[in-house]
Amino acid sequence: MxxxxxxxxxxxxxxxxxxxxxxxxxxxxxLVAFTFGNMSWISRIVYGLVGLxxxxxxxxxxxxxxxxxxxxx
Length: 73
Known about the structure:
0% strand
C-alpha cells in the first residue's frame, strides 16, 4: 500500500504544529487559538490532529531507514 499522500498530509499538519509551538515560545502567540478560539472544539480537533500526526510520523523513521538500507545493498 502506497501511503505517500498520507505521509505528506501528516507532515504538513506536524509542521503547522511545530510552527505554532515556535510562535508560542517566541512571542506567546497561539495561532490555533487565535484562529479557532481558545480551546474551542475546532481548536481541540486541530491540536489532536497534530498529536496524531506526530505519532504517525514515528513510523516514517522505520520506513526511511528500511529504504536507505535496501538502497545501499
